[in-house]
Amino acid sequence: MSTEDEKLLKEAKKLPWEDRLTHKNWKVRNDANIDLAAVCASISDPKDPRLREFGPFFRKSVADANAPVQEKALDALIVFLKVADADVGRYAKEVCDAIVAKCLTGRPKTVEKAQAIFMLWVELEAVDAFLDAMEKAIKAKVAKAVVPAIDVMFQALSEFGSKIVPPKRILKMLPELFDHQDQNVRASSKGVTLELCRWIGKDPVKSILFEKMRDTMKKELEAELANVTGSARPSRKIRSEQDKEPEPEAMSEVAGSGPAEEAAADTPQEIDEYELVDPVDILTPLEKTGFWAGVKATKWSERKEAVAELSKLASTKRIAPGDFTEICRTLKKLITDVNIAVAVEAIQAIGNLARGLRTNFSGNSRFMLPVLLEKLKEKKPTLTDALTQTLQAMYKSGCLNLADIVEDIKTAVKNKVPLVRSLTLNWLTFCIESSNKAILLKLHKEYVPICMECLNDGTPDVRDAAFSALAALAKLVGMRPLENSLEKLDEVRKKKLSEMIGSSGGGPPAVAGSAAVKSSSGSMPCSESSDASYVRKSAASMLSGKRPVQAAAATKKAGSVKSGVSKKGDGLGPSKALKPIEPEDVEPADMGLEEIESRLGSLIQAETISLLKSAVWKERLEAIVSLKEQVEAIENLDSSVEILIRLLCAVPGWNEKNVQVQQQVIEVTIHIASTATKFPKKCVVLCIQGVSERVADIKTRAHAMRCLTTFCESVGPGFIFERMYKIMKEHKNPKVLSEGLLWMVTAVEDFGVSLLKLKDLIDFCKDIGLQSSAPATRNASIKVIGALHKFVGPDIKGFLSDVKPALLSTLDAEYEKNPFEGAAAAPKKTVKVADSATSASGGGLDSLPREDISGKITPALLKGLESSDWKIRMESIEAVNKILEEANKRIQPTGTVELFGALRGRLYDSNKNLIMATLSTIGSIASAMGSAVEKASKGILSDILKCLGDNKKHMRECTLTTLDLWLAAVHLDKMVPYFAAALMDAKIGAEGRRDLFEWLSRQLAGLKDFNDAIHLLKPVATAMTDKSADVRKAAEVCFGEILKVCGHEMVTKNVRDIQGPALAIVLDRLKPYGASRETMSTAPSSKTGLKIGKTNGAVSKHGRAVAPRGVLAKGARPEIIMSVEDINMHSQALLNIKDSNKDERERLIVRRFKFEEPRLEQIQDLESDLMKYFRDDLHRRLLSTDFKKQVDGIDMLQKALPSMSRDITEVLDILLRWFVLRLCESNTSCILKVLDFLPELFSALRNEGYIMTESEAAIFLPCLFEKSGHNIEKVREKMRELTKLIIHTYSAAKTFPYVLEALRSRNNRTRIECVDLVAYLLDNHGSEISGQLKSLQIVASLTAERDGELRKAALNTLATGFKILGDDIWKYVGKLTEAQKSMIDDRFKWKTREMEKRKEGKPGEARAALRRSVRENGSEAAEQSGEILRSMSGPIVSRENYDHPDLYMERHSMPRTHASPIGPTDWNEALDIIVYGSPEQSVEGMKVVCHELAQTMSDPDGSAMDDVLKDADKLVSCLATKVAKTFDFSLMGASSRSCKYVLNTLMQTFQNKRLAHAVKESTLDSLITELLLWLLDERVPRMDDGSQLLKALNVLMLKILDNAERTSSFVVLINLLRPLDPARWPSPPSNESFAMRNQKFSDLVVKCLIKLTKVLQSTIYEVDLDRILQSIHVYLQELGMEEIRKRAGADDKPLRMVKTVLHELVKLRGTAIKGHLSMVPIDMEPQPIILAYIDLNLQTLAAARMLTPSGPVGQSNWGDSAANNSSQATHSADSQLKQELAAIFKKIGEKQTCTIGLYELYRITQLYPKVDIFSQLQNASEAFRTYIRDGLSQMEKNAAAGRTPSSVPLATPPPSSLNLSSPKFAPLSPVHTNTLNDSKSVNSKVEPTSFSLPPSYAEDDKAYNTMMSRGPISDHPESRHQSGEQNERFPPGVTGGTLNAIRERMKSIQAAAGNPESVNRPLMNLNGNVDPSQFSQSTDRANSENPAVGVLPMDEKALSGLQARMERLKSGSIEPM
Q: Which of 350, 618, 758, 1434 has the most CB atoms lying inside 10 A of its own CB?
């Protein structure tokens, strides 16, 4: 510098700062900036006033035009910002703008400093100014200025985190950068996007940014996003936080030393996506949509569309606040809209508004909450789901809080609908779980009482929901605050609550879990310490997975901590396992010299320590030598290690200048580190900085390097290397870096690479060492990489591909000096304590990191591999190669399965070049993936080997290259099975097999011992007899190698697996090695020996001859040569079925109709099964490749068949699979032998009664029909015979689908055979396949085929069908062309002429004739049906038939004749076919029945109806039995046609009341039971037309209830309320228990009873109350009082239903109900339960004024009826009659009961013709009297027609002008009425008056005549029950009060019973005494006046029983029934 310049600068120093900084001379400005930096550096107080003075200067200085001055200005600014505090933020905006304008396009160093300044501004909390500047920077025209700006934003976000740098602003900047023209800008913007994903998650970033990107950018980012894992944590703090805490550097190196709270505070705050998006105004666009008009529309669809528009607008993430009051009012109305779709849409719109507005929607939410909660009563799932989601959204979004909703919850839980209560509590549970503890601690007192009250709710769901809410509350606040509230709970509920809390983890475990998380997060900085020096400064570096995955490491750490905790908790882990729990504290705390001295105590002499502090070096040297001696003298150093090291670091310390002292200090350190059993990492940290610096000094280098090596031995090299990286990188002395790297070379050679993080070391060498400008450093880095190459091999090159070419050549030279040694490169030194954190499990090669490429294997890439364009396919393959390159050819197997699948397809590509490219790629993948490729590839190796079948040499070479790469990754033993299969594959040509044998020989030659090669013996032996000389030669060489690696003994043992000529050759080759002669004897026949001789003579080149025992002389007599082993085997059974599991094998069989060639794995399974279950000699023959051996095996089976036909069924599936294999081969001799044996086999099975299972049929039939078109006529003939035999033994119906599938075969001969077979089936089994005739359209379609023979066969088959079906066949042939129709029509005409010539009648006539033969000759249909049912019993367990055992006896006794009916011709034949035929055959019978019924209905009064009535019960009984059979048949896969027919026939039967009434009670019982069971069967909906069948079952059940005899219906249904016999249920397809099924069944019965009970008021006179009461009595007695009480508490539905029926009867009949207890033993002890219930009902009804009690109710003793009724006997008859008439007139006066009233009045006029009823109507109007007259006239007509009140249409209501007042009479008494028995359950009604109505209005005389004609009724109760007879009835009360009166009455009844012609109508005297003369007179009179109405006489036995009962009553000795 000149003197002028010096003078100028000196003068300038006197100027003010501003003048100096703006001086025109650049040197002055430069000097001023240097001085300014120095002054700033000297300031320690951030509040220094000078800082405020300097602040404004930087705005101009950083914009200096002179570059060096600008750099100095930036330096000064950096110093300024480091010492300042947040107050200087006022200057940030101007300074940042200046830097953006002038510095970002400057020199690299300038840009770097500018970025550092921006980071400091962020640190000083001037984030807004920084981001404002960035917004300007990214708009720069020069891309060079944009990239640094993006990078600095990336750095700020990466280091400070999203809490300091708001992501929202960065997100706004990114979209315009995505479309920037410069690719570097785009790459950087991608990097920032990925960093944002780490901080705020992938989903928010995707939702905000992806819609603004181009598709290509999206795809690229999607691929990169796969590499972003875990969440990020800030590595740098703002200045204000730094002041509160220790230095960040120190913090980052502390592993879990800080408190858990600080560690937790470091975790990043959850970023809410809501805060990242801008609010959207939806009110303005809503106005334009016509919303307001739409919501008021009358059409629901318009309202829904309007609300949907609102919902769509509100679905935006954030809605701008506004006035939504009117909208919410409208939505509140729409919630209750009548249309559910509108309501659901409105509720969803509310949810969207809540999510988008959040707290701005709170007022509206509270306004709508009550309506939403009330709406929960709806049961529609769509509505309930919408409500639940909306309510949850309202709470989750903050619209509501727990304090707001208390009152609404209280109201909702008191709602009368249980669903509202339970769902409200469920929502409350959600709210509690979503809240924090503080809120709940305040509010729990409000909510606990609500839940406690709900625990007592009557609905289980509400109670459970209340428990859940309490449990959720207890989990969050703990049990202590709730103790007082929960005291009221009983022990059971407390226990349940504690279980619920414990099941999902209570409070304390949660705390422990959080502590574990905190401790793990506290340890995270330790894992990140190694990466601290690699903070990415470039955003683009985030791409391509180059960023170190820190999160994964942290996760592993946390995982180890957790596992440690669990082991500790279990108390099972050893002490070593507990080490990871508390990571070692590696950061030493500060300790002063005084403290060190005090801790040392007397360990080191005080004089020594004082000398160490001396300023004279000689004294220090003397002291250190003395210290060394004293330390060496210490015996146990372990306890003093740290304090001694601290002493050395303090005095003389690592800053010691004297070399000799330095050397001694290092020596002492080495001694301590090597002697101590454990050298703490803290001590290493204390020493490593100083030791590293000593390495740079040549005088202390050797000592320092030895010290570092000793440290490695003590704590592991991984820790030392990590610490060294940071020191070497940041040290100013380049020697520290270069020499440190040289030490690393020796460390790698000493310790290997297993304990190092190789990725970190390689990156350090690449990024720091190789980039250094110092040659020494570069050379040292190259040597480190060379040392690594020795251990990890050439794979290291993949990590250095981006290094400069010049360096790469140097590296290659270094690799040659250090060749890869693999396992031989063992480490020279070991580590005392293994470092668990750094040691890698694999070490060596596997410690090189592998990249997860699953994210890059996109659907687009996979689709490209399948593209039809070969160019796209090639591009996709190249893309895969590129992915491998980017991953440094080191990949993980994750997510590659689909890739392998796509590549497998390319191995069969039509383009050969693509196949070769694919092979190359697969090889690269195998090399990159390593051993994991074997599992991930899913057997692709077999597809690779198939490429050897190509005739091009280049292709085969490419395949072998791939195999080389595969072998390098996977061991040979994993590949051998694929080779064995490939060598046996005939599709691989001779050249391919030769190449593979040669390749195998090369691989085996390098091995010493490889036993797995024995699996290649069989294919090698087979190849030694190959036609190709090259293959034989290559196989011989390979055999020699196999012999070497497996040994002679192993090869000899496995020779027995070889058959035929190959065996002789192998034995010949084994001779020189001492093969035993016995092995030769395995040749089983002389023929084989001859063949061997020939083959060997032709093949052998070594002059060896086969032993004489193996070859017979020419002309010698052939004899069977049998080995000793074979002789021993013959003593064993041929089949070993002991361990056979046929069901399991059949379960694995895929049932298909179409034939598929057996696959390799299926053949292997067959071989293993044959070996397992067949004797050795037999399975060897069957598995031999020699067909003669196979024939011998079949001979063995044929001979043994008669003795083992039963055993063979267990392995029939295996045998059939073997036969399929043989039929697929081309050897005719073997096929003929198989076809000879199979008929014998099936005949034997038929004799045993065995039918093939469906699985066995699926194995064999597809192959049989496919191969039936064999080219040899003899084979075809045998197959035809076999097919017919199978059809006879299996089933034509089940065989037919297989035949139809074979019609689609490509083989024309097969199709011809199958068409002929269809004709055979039509001709001989037409009835069986009648349900599948629509399939004839397939045959008809074949008439359009080109092949003439096929057309001819199809026409002949259709002609056969025409012969049988007649013109009906046109229904089944489908749509045809005119030409086809013409052709078929001609053939039909020809067939008609042929039939006329042969006198076979006309087409279709045979059908009717054959139908008629059913009744005459019996039917094979029965036999076939039986077979079908037998086959059905396998997979489907049909229900037993309880109803008609005699039917089955008849069926088995029927003679079997060979007939094949097509359909019935009359009613009786139809019934027989329904009974005996199969489900498909019975359809024809049901058609006839339906036709007959339809005709009968058209003339209901004709004689036809009488005939049908006789058979009505039989018909329904047949159909009830058929229901189960047809449904079972359909469940097997057949059509549901038969099910529909049986239900339709039943429907037609029950549509007619007379027919329905003719059905007996027992039949009705079986039918109703069957129908209800099928209604409940879960399999029915899955059937063909299942939904229609269910509907039909429902409708039929309703029709039965409407029209069947009501008494029987009541009795049957009440009986069915008992638990059903388990045997009646079908086989359960689900795991449902019988108890659960019975409950469902009972519920269904209850529904039926409800329907009957509802109409009791109008049908009360149609039912026999005595029988109904008897059935109720039996039900209650069976239960018993204890059970009734128990069930009443459990709200049992069946019991409740029975009580309801009884209540309804009592309500309708009043006290007269006691007159209908004739079948109840009322005098039993204790009294029947029914009596108590009747009394209770009478009391209740009387209290409710629903009846007029006639005497005291609730009597305690029912035995003496006379005593009970004596008080009522005094009432006059007239008054009682008047009272009865008044009641009837009252009924007539009411609209609902007018018909019943008129009928009752009519009956009174019939019973009492002398009574003038009109005298009672004097006060009534004329209109009313006229109405009465007309009504009585109508009733008389109805009675003449036999119609009852229930069948009479409702009469027109009477005029309302009835003035007659009801007279007040005394209470009426219950009057005894005799009850009659008849064959049709005659109703016996007791009116609540003094007279009895006759029960004959619903009856028919015919029934009685029928009953009498059938003879006397059996005494047996069941037979009597089935015949429709009733049990004895006993009158419960006597009006006269004397037993004599009863006896007199019995006489009169008997007298009447003796005259069948008389009609017995009991008539009571008004005073209760019986007047026989009056009785007979009234009877005669009634009979003469109304002959149409009659009552059947009582059966004699019933009368005698009743009389005996009377006698017992008289003597007082009646016993319970």
A: 350
